[in-house]
Amino acid sequence: MEPNKPVSTLQLHPVYQPIVDRQLSVVGYESFIRGTDANQVLTDFLSPSLQRLDRIVSLDSLCKQLALEKYTGSAPLFLNSHPYSCDPFPQPLSLPKRHGLVIELTEHALVHEEQRLLKNVEWLSARGVRFAIDDFGYGFLSLPFIMRLQPQFIKLAKEVVQSCIYVRSRKVVKRIVQPFRDMGIQIIAEGIESEAQFENLQSVVDAFQGYWISKPKILLEA
Amino acid sequence: MRIIEKQERSEFGVQVMFEPVVNRDFQLVAYEAIMQFDTANQEQLLDLSLDRYIASKTHKESVPLILNSQLIATTPYFNLFADSKSEIVLQVEFSQLQSYSRMQYPSDRLAGNRVQIVLSGFLQCYFSLPILIDLRPKYIKLAWEVIQSCADDDTMYGIAKLLKPLKESGTLVIVDGIEDRNRFERVEPFADAFQGFWITEQSQRNFQRRFLRG
Lengths: 222, 214
Description:
The complex is a heterodimer.
Chain A: E1 13-20, E2 26-34, H1 38-46, H2 53-70, E3 77-80, E4 101-105, H3 114-125, E5 130-136, E6 138-142, H4 143-149, E7 153-156, H5 158-163, H6 167-182, E8 186-189, H7 195-200, E9 207-208
Parallel strand pairs in A: 2-3, 3-4, 4-5, 5-7, 7-8, 8-9
Antiparallel strand pairs in A: 1-2
Chain B: E1 6-9, E2 14-22, E3 28-37, H1 39-47, H2 50-58, E4 65-68, E5 88-93, H3 107-112, E6 115-122, E7 124-128, H4 129-135, E8 139-142, H5 144-149, H6 153-168, E9 172-175, H7 181-187, E10 193-194, H8 197-213
Parallel strand pairs in B: 3-4, 4-5, 5-6, 6-8, 8-9, 9-10
Antiparallel strand pairs in B: 1-2, 2-3
């Protein structure tokens, strides 16, 4: 595996994991990247440095492009965006017409050109793109950033979901996410790995995602 | 009552100052110990947790004393506070709690030693909801960025709404960095306690007024 293989030659393909509502109806798909070079891409994403900013942004853009090209579903597509991509949907990507688009951001986004990012978010929001905060409750948190972003979705980190096996934890999480729900933000629980987790979180969140529901998979042609 | 008390401990080379924390009626609810070290001894003092020990010893009020916690693996030293007159509040950041486990830092053991926790840098920091749930901090101190963001009305109302569940569960919100009346009034709707230059000034004036009246 070459660490600096040119982006255009990387062997990658997208897979999609369903997000379901309380009745297990699919309300969206999140894309992930797989393939021979997927580990290299993940390594670049998880240990970013500003010296490699251009490469990371190019990789991020390529992952988004592949996810959009291969997506055959009609439910909204949830696309991850790297914190370094202050334009979360850059040219030459074009907005999909057949399905909705939700871009997932982490609050780390604020560390790199937040103003530019928010300007792009505003432009995309005006064109129907929605936004999600990823991995909420475990990792870096910036409430001011969430307030400025005004996301439509918040995805609870799997560590938070796991802590909800305890009744007390569940009650506290429910109380903490309720003000977001009152603001019209839908809460998605990530990392659902058992029926018990799905059942326990029925009154806490609006949607669910995880291996118990489905592993990420290649979508067949519609 | 002296609002800011300075104590010299020459044998350790530490000067301790106590900054007042007040409620919205300007009644004293806690002191935060601010320590200045003789640089030659600083490392040794931090290692041995003696800084907190000295602060707790020099504190003569009955209100809680907030102490900055540099190290998380200091549970053996909690007994240093055992004969303290006031409740001890250890100020920690979430980033210090990354290696947290229930065995290492049990909240019931803390409470048993009359030690409470204030989480600082709150809502703009490394954050773990499971740790927050487990730790049940008595106080949280908002991050400077969060306080600044309250200049915007929508953000301020949003933050107030999001803090409500924590407040309802008994956690008190401290806002530090109050430098003027405007900032005090801005955060008053959701803050339970206040700290900063302007607060210290008001507290000193109140004290002098009372002192002069006899």
